[in-house]
Write the C-alpha cells for this entry.
Amino acid sequence: MKKAVPEKSIFGWLRRSWPSLLVLFLAALLFLGVRLALREERDTAELAGDYVEYERGTVTALLSDSCFSDPVAEGSQRGVQDLIVEAETGQYAGTSFSAKNYVYPMYGGAVKEGDSVSLIISTYASGEVFVEVFQYNRITPLLIVVGVFFLVTVLVGRKTGLKSLISLVIMVLCLFLILIPLLLRGHSTVLTVFLVCAYITVVSFTILGGLRRKSLCAMLGTIAGTAFALLFGLFAQAICRVNGYNTGSEAVGYLMQLRADGVPLGIKGLLAAGVVISALGAVMDVAMSISSALEEVHAANPGLGFRALFRSGMNIGQDMVGTMTNTLILAFLGSSFTLILYLYSLGLSFYQLLPSAYIAVEVVSGIASSIGMILAIPLTAAVSAAMLERWKKPQPPAQPVQAQPAKKGKKKP
C-alpha cells in the first residue's frame, strides 16, 4: 500500500506546482536560446588605432579648481578641475593619469579627493593617452537605493513581495539582454516589443500566482489589453503623422547616427513600442485585480453564470478606470514636465502649441496606454467569466425538505 505524500512536504509542493515549474523551465530555455543566438564573439585581436574606453577610477589628488557658482542654475557650478586619477579597471588598472573634469550644470559635477569616478580613456595610434572625468561614479549609491527598495518590499510583502522582485529582475533582464539586442539587430520594433512583453507577462504571472485559473485569465487579459494599446497607438500616430523620430529626445539624434553607421534600428516604430512598454505594468495590475476579484465572487456564489460574473467584473473595473487613467496620464506628463515648462514659457499661441509634434507624441502615448488599460477590464472580465462558468464544479441536487411530524402535547386552556 502506497504512503500518502504530505501536502506540506517538498514532494507535495512539487506535485502541486509542476505545471508552473514546467512553464518556467520552458521560459528559461527560450531565454537562454535567444541569448545564445544573440551572443557576439569578442574580438581577441589587440586593439589598434584610436579607441575610447570607459573605466572606473579614483581621484587621488586635486591640482587646481576653477569652478564657480553658476549665476543661472541655482546650486550648480561651472568650471574646470585638474586632477590626478588612478584607473581601477581595464588595461590601465593601477596606472595614474593627469585628467581634466569639465563641470557644467547639465552634466558633470565637481569632485574631490577620494571620490570614485567614471573615466573616459582615449588611446591614440601614436601611443598618447588622454584621460577625462566622465561622471561621478554613482554605482554604490544606486545599489544602496535599490537595496532599501528590496528590503522594504520583502518586509512588507513577505513571500509575495519576494516573488514580485524576482519577476521585476526577470523583466529588467529581458529588456536589456533580449529586447534591446534584438532591436539593434534590425528585428521589427513593434512586433519584437509586443512578443517580449507577452513573454514577460506569462513569466511574471506564473511566478506570482502559479499556473492557476486566475493567472491564466490575467495573462490573456493583459496580452489582449497591450495588443489593443499597440493597435490604437499605431492608428493614432498614423492620423497625427508622428512617429519615433518626433519624440523630441536628444537620444533620437544618436540613434539616427547609429543608422548612418549601419545599425539597422527601426526608429519609426519606437513611439508605438514605448506605448506597449509603458502600458504593460498598469494593464497587468488591472487584469490581475479583475481576475482575482471574480475568483472570490465565484467562490462565494458558485451558481453565478457568465452574465452575472461579467457584470460583477465590469462593476469592479469601473472603479479602477478613474484612478488608473489618471496614473498613466500623470506619469507621461511627469516624464516630459521639463519640456512642458519650456514650451509654456515661450508664450506660444493655441495654434502653435497643440499642432506641434511634441504635444501630439505625449497625447498619443498617454491615451493609447490608457485605452489598453481600460479595454483590459472587459476583456479580462469576459475571459474570467467564461472560464469560471466552464470549469465550475457541479452542485449537488438540493434534498427535499421533509415535513416534521407535529409533537403531541396538551392544549393550552
About this structure: The CA atoms of residues 2 and 411 lie 64 Å apart. The radius of gyration is 30 Å. The first strand starts at residue 51 and ends at 65. Strands lie at 51-65, 68-69, 77-87, 96-103, 116-123, 129-136.
